[in-house]
Structures are given as structure tokens and as C-alpha cells.
Amino acid sequence: MRRSKPAARTGERVERRVAKRVQAQRWYLRFPRAVPVGIFLLVSGITALSVYAIEQVETQRAEAQDRQMAMAVTTSLERLANAHVAYLKAGAALLSTQTEVRHATFREFAQQVDNDESLGGGGVLAWAQPVRREHIGQLELAMRRQGEPDFTVHPRTTLPEALVVTYVEPRTRASFSTIGYDLMYEPVRRAAAEQAIRTGRPIASGSIRLISGAPSGQVGFGVLAPVYRAGFDGHQKGQLLGVIARAFAAQDFLTAALAPQQLNNYGVALYDPATSRHRAIAASGPQAVTGRRIVRPVVFAGRTMQVELSPPPGTTLSNLSLLTLLLGMMVAGLLLIVARLVTRQASEDRAALAWFEEQASIRNSLTRELNHRVKNTLANVLSIVALTRRRTSNIDDFVSGLIGRVRALSATHDLLTQSEWGTTPIRAVVEAELAPYARDGDHAVVLRGPGVELAPNDALSLGLALHELATNASKYGALSQPGGQVEVAWDMMTEKLARIEWRERGGPPVPAQRRSGFGTELIEKIVAHELRNPVDLRFDPGGVQCILIVPVRTPAAFALREGTGVLGL
After folding, report:
1. Residues facing 248 on adjacent strands
2. Does domain 372-567 have CATH number 3.30.565.10?
3. Could you read off the pLDDT of 89-140 as tens digits, one per residue?
4. DSSP secondary-structure letter at 471?
5. Helix, strand or coil, per DSSP, at residue 273
6. Contact 212, 125 (CB under 8 A)
7. Architecture of domain 22-314
8. Dist CA 334 CA 542 (whole Å)
9. Which helix (H) or strand (E) covers residue 513, if one does?
């Protein structure tokens, strides 16, 4: 049934629309892996920025926590130092009311200080009495009479005045060596004592080696509080009765001050910048060799020291960053898979559209080819009918000749159908036309030649020519009597031309004078025209010889689409 014009136009519009859609080469179809990779990189970048922002916040939080811890440590150290200074001030006020400071009075004050459990980290509490250098011997005699038989001032100073320790509490074997020690002998102690006497306030010394405590001498510092006779108001000096001195082992003091603190792996170090800027006099917790450190000043009785806080080493990434990174990579991977599936589906859809367009094109080509092939076949049949009609005088000869030639066309068509209208070997065409005679034991059919492939139209023309030659040989030539031989040989003349030679032997002699028949005319006119090369047909006395020149074309010259069987002939 013929399709109506509106329906045909609608189909053409649909085909054009499909073809236009297929030909629209979108970039994500041309690069199917670019979209998934781009989405993966985008999500990965967002994840990296999120992790960076989280780490920045974590860093700021850690820095704020470090500053808070440094302030807490500094406050604890100053609180403990101020508590000791307050007791020393109270003791100075108490002893200033005495005309002479006796051992019993000083011991009572020391016991009150020791009974306060909040005062930790303190060492020996000593009373130092000023004495002129020329009166040192008198002081030694007086102290020996009071029950100190081994009392000796040491070391001997060359200064005009000494500040000699006469009483110590608690009195132990370790602190016994402190009795008789001249505080003015060592420069650091002397500087602190002079400043305390001059200002009338408790003053802390720099870092010193303690006289008592460990045998090797611990590093620490002392606090010296001057005691004047009552009436001293800070502007007018009264008589100096002596100095209350308390020694602190730096490590014990630091431990006592930080006891209430939870350091949480923080490292704390105490430095005396006046004596040593690179070596701590006390340390607690892990000390980081490298990394960020926080340095804060701390004031002990008018003297500024430094406390250094070493934060614990941080992890590479915080837990929140690790969770964000894990989720981000999971989302990126999931989106990568989804995008890959979507782009693959788009590619498959595009391939399907291209296939539909291709099938439509093939269908149109097949229709045109079928029309062309039917016209060619009908033209060949009409030519055969016309020539057969002119060369026959009765209906029987006409029918038999026409049937034979149409069968020759049919045999060659069968070969072309088997090859899906692709190339056909010369041997196959020759064998198809000579098959009826090759099975006859009275005749010999010899075929030789290389494997040469022919285009469909050329194979049809060759088949017609071989049919006429075989028919003529079976009637009048080598195939008409026993012992006859037909030899068909072929080879390549050039890359584009094949030479096929038909030769008959052992048949009846060919008469010199003979009338040209239909087969001769068909070979010399129709076949030569179709092959586009002249045909050399000779009727020698020994047998018919025919040389055909057949073009050998590459498949690209006549195949509309490889493997489809659609040919342009």
C-alpha cells in the first residue's frame, strides 16, 4: 500500500529531527568521562574547603584553649607566691614589735606558717641578722653561748656588713648547713637583700643553688622580707632588725602551684630571664622539642620570671574533619558512579538514535538500490529477449534460449545473494556456469587462477558471457563430443584489471565461414559494454578462444555500507 504524501512528509520530518538530534554533538557526550570526573573533583574540592575551614576553627579553638591554660598556670604560680609573700609580710610585722628577735619567737612564727596546708613548695624559713664585719666574732660567741657550739659565719665576706642566718625552721640535718651562712656573700642573694632593705618590701631573688635540700644543690629562688623596728612607715627607715628569708626549690614550687591544675598533656617550664634564657629552672609535663609555645610573664615578689607553656601535639586532622572528609569522599564517589551511569545511558541513547538514523538511511538506500537493480535486471532481460527474438525463427528455440539465459542470470544472482551482494570470486562464477558440464565424465573442465573478487555487476556480466560460451561449446564446440576440454584461466593484468581466458580443445573443427549468432552479439556488445572493456572472441579451427578484461574494484568503490549488502553498481 502506497504511503500518502502527508504521512511521507511527517516521516521525513521525524527522520530529519532524529538526525539533527543525533548530529548535535554535546560536549558531555563527546567526553563521557569528563562529567563524572568533574563532579568528583568539584565535590572533592568542596570537601577539602570544608575540612580546611573546620581545621581553621579547630586551630583557633586550640589557640584560645592554650591561652586560657597559660593564664590559669600563670595565675596559680602568682597565687602561691603571693600567699607566701603575705605570710612573710605578716611575720615581718610580728617580729618588728620585738626589741630582739629570739629563736622561740621565730620558731612560733615558722610553725604557724607550716601549719597552713595551702602553702606548698616552700623550703627552709630562715632569720638573717645584719652584723658589721668587725662584730662577726662577737656574734659567733653569742650564738655558741645560746646552744650553737659549731656556729661559724661562712663564707667570710669582705664587705663592711654581713647578713648572717642565725635561725632556721624546720631544723633538720639538711638545713643545719644553712646556719651561719652570709647572704651577702653570693651576688644574686646580695642583690635581692639590698633591694628588699632599700624598698622595705619582700623581694624574690634570681635563680640560685640552694644551700640546703638536695646534696647536689637544687635550683630555686629565695624571697627576702626586711624587718624593721616598729614605726617604719616606708618613708622613714627605722632600725633594721633582720631579714626573713624563705628558700623555694623551683621544681617543688612549680609542682605545688600546678597541683590543682589538669594540664592535659601540656608542658610547663619556668625560666629566670635574668640568669638563663635557654635553660628552665623547673619543668612539668611533656616538653615539645618543636612546635608552638606560649610565653607569659609571672611576677614573684617584685621579680618577673617567665612561664612557658607547650601545647600537646595535635593530630593531623580533627575527628570532625575526618568525618567530613569521609562523608565527602563517599558522596563524591556516589555522585561519580551516578554521573557515570547517566552519561553512559546518554551515550547509549545517542548510539540508539544514531542506529535508528542509520537504519532509516539504509532503508532509503535499499529502496533506491532495489529500484536501480530491478531496472538493470529488466533492461538485461529485455535486451536478451529482443536479441533472442531476432535470432530465432520458431517459438521453441526462442523459449529454450530465453530460459537458458535467464537461468544464467539467476545462477549468478544466487552467488551474489550468498555473498550478500558483496564481492564474488571469479572461480565461483566460473564453477556455477560450468557445473552441468564438469560432472560429465566425457569432458574435461580445467580451472586455474588466483583468488580475485569481482563487484556484483561485473560478476553478472561475466556470468552471462560464460553461459553463452558454455552453451556454444555444448552445441558446437569441445563440450559437444567426448574427449573435449574447456580451460578457463585468469590472472591479474594490473591492480585494477583481471584477464580471463576461455580456451576449447578436442572439439569439432570450427568452420572458417560461419554466421554470427546471438551469443556472439551478446558477448561482443552487451558484455563488453557492461565490463567497459573490449572482448577478444576468436573462432580458431582448433576451438573457440575468448579473452575478457574485467575491472577489479575495491569494496569502497561500490559498497554503500560495509556488511549491509547494499551496493552501488
Report:
1. 221
2. yes
3. 998 988 888 888 888 888 888 888 888 777 776 778 999 999 999 999 999 9
4. H
5. coil
6. no
7. 2-Layer Sandwich (3.30)
8. 86
9. none
Q: What is the pTM assigned to this prediction?
A: 0.56
Element at 523 (helix H, strand E): none
| Choice between 350 and 322, residue whose per-residue pLDDT is larger | 322
Instruction: Tell me how far apart the alpha carbons of residues 91 and 74 are, in angstroms, rounded to a whole number.
Output: 26
Strand 282-284's sheet: what is its strand order?
A: 282-284, 267-271, 303-310, 294-300
Q: What is the pLDDT of residue 238?
A: 73
Residue 236 pLDDT > 70, yes or no? no
> What CA–CA distance (Å, rounded) separates 126 from 177?
12
Phi, psi of 102 (to 5 degrees): -105, 165
The rounded distance, in Å, linking the Cα atoms of 331 and 541 is 92
Banded model confidence at residue 363, pLDDT cuts 50, 70, 90: confident
Residue ranges per domain, the chain?
22-314, 372-567
How far apart, in whole angstroms, are the C-alpha atoms of residue 35 and residue 39?
A: 6
Q: Own/partner pairs for 565-569, CB < 8 Å, 24+ apart?
A: 565/420, 565/421, 565/422, 566/362, 566/365, 566/366, 566/369, 566/421, 567/369, 567/421, 567/422, 567/455, 567/456, 568/369, 569/372, 569/373, 569/376, 569/455, 569/456, 569/457
In this prediction, residue 214 has a pLDDT band, given cuts at 50, 70 and 90, of very low
Beta bridge partners of 245: 126, 224
Give the three-class secondary structure for 397.
Answer: helix
Q: Give Cβ neighbours of residue 73 (< 8 Å, ≥ 6 apart).
A: 257, 258, 261, 266, 268, 296, 307, 309
Grid coordinates of 246:
624563705
Confidence class for position 419, pLDDT limits 50, 70, 90: low
Q: Is the peptide bond before 6 cis (omega within 30 degrees of 0)?
A: no
Highest-pLDDT range among 155-159, 194-198, 279-283? 194-198
Burial class (CB in 10 A: 0-12, 13-18, 19+), 523: buried
Judge whether 416 and 456 are in contact, CB under 8 Å. yes
Q: What angle do CA 367, 370, 373 make, to 5 degrees?
A: 150
Closest CA to 102 of 137, 135, 133, 127: 127
pLDDT exceeds cutoff 60 at 290: no
d(CA 93, CA 102): 15
Higher pLDDT, 215 or 553: 553
